[in-house]
Amino acid sequence: MKGLQFQRLVLLSDLKKLANQFTFPKRLNLVTGNDNSIGKSTLVKSLFWTFGCEPKFDEEWKSHDVKAILYFKINGKEFVISRYVDGLYFGEKNSPLKKYPKVTGQFSIDFAKEVGFDLLLANKSCQLDCPPPAYYFLPFYIDQKKSWDEPWNGFERLQQYSNFKASLIKYFCGYLSHKHFELEEEIFEQKAADREATEQVERITEALSVIEEAAPEVKVAVTQEELESIQMEIEAELKELSSCQTSLFEQQSVLANEVHDLEQQHLIASTSARELEEDYTFTVENVPSDTLECPLCGTEHDNSLLSRAGLLADKEGLEQQALSIEKTLAEKYRQRELLVKELNYVASEVDRINDKYLKDESSEENADTQSAFEHALYSVSQKKVNSGVLQKKEHFQLRSQKAKDNQKEIKKEQRKLLKKKDKDELNELFIGNLVENITTLSATGVNLNGVKSPMDYRKILGGGAAEGTRGTLAYQLSVLRQIEHADNCQIAPFVLDTPNQQEQAKHRYEQVIDVVTENIPLGYQVILCAMDDSDALATYKKDAHVIELDDNRLLKREPYEDLRSEYESEVLSNEKTE
Known about the structure:
With 578 residues, this protein is of the alpha/beta class. Helices cover 55% and strands 13% of the residues. The protein is built from 15 helices and 15 strands.
């Protein structure tokens, strides 16, 4: 086998002093038992949870507050990963492990590097991210519930990237190459440059409108000689004032945005803290029990002392955040006052220059002359200020346009990466495998009209519910072959949870198991979850490692001490020091 293979999973609950371990030594593995509620799904979900994925667990399992260690290989190279809450340890076996405070960010980058997962997705801040491991594992996991209705949907909390499925499918199935994402990074760099330049243009435009509103309504005509004479005398002083005024207007615009954002953040944090305090008061004074039933849906929510303490902790955290924002706001208000003083100083300097060149008002003639000089002086000042500001505005407009033009050129280069001939071949390969799988699974009632590529999974419609389920499996198996053909990254184990969906007829269920056994490429490790109540599993079990769960569920008391010692020695005492 190539790619990533699971070896051993350790699950540990310090809260309840329970633990267990499970091995996956073969290509084919079976997690089974004679009951639907003994933890088969929870076991395979825990494999993915350890990598930072978010499968849907029931409340009983969450109450165990589990820690996990998973030993696995990537092309023969051995690794260890451990997770507790959102913190992770990750690294090569028999080497110090690096500690990560969260799944996103550096952990996602380091893991993606090991499996060759070079997909990039745009986040809500319009920046490119290396997505977390959940997006890497999506095509390799069919969960018991959601994936059978809609592929590429096996985990929770996938909304951080909007419309990610098209890019994800195209990447895994060979339509997008590594070069595509190199160019995508360049496109986003140009988008950032365009965005920055556009913001500067908007700020300058706003500043110019303020200046224009302050301009006198009276228009005074002076001779060219008088205008040139005044301009020459004050040019040196006015040049410095012009530059200073432009800079101050820009700073004022930026500061106004920052103050507005901080005020909104403070309002949200303060309001949330008050609401949490009201929630706590309600749970203490009005709810005597440790549970609270929702009057709408009947769901029981935890109202234990620990839960109520969590409300107080969250409230205190929000109050601390509000105080921090208040301090930052105070500093911003101080900066705003200083800016106003500086702007007033610039205005006073303009007045000083104005006074310098005004005539005595003792006579009507001098008064008229004074007015002429005053307005001429303002015209010269305004002309110099506007000239400098407009030059900057034009500069940023050119930068914005250049960034837009660069994006168009890069996108043209991107489109040339996948030639029509190569695209048609990928489509034909997928459709060929899909038709073959549908025939093998006796799902010929599935309507493939409009299905031309792996991206068209929503158009795969089945006849009855059972046949539609087999159609979904046919699609997933076709994608696996496509992934192996594209070879864009290391393949992961294929985990199939409860294929006997919609109560398949006995001979149909046997067909499903035969297809899983024989049609999945040999490079994949396979983990199958199924109830041990059918002869359909007999052939699969011959070559498989069988994990048979009983009524004692997943965790047991006997192995706790040994596995707790392993966690301390392999994880806690093995942290990599920078």
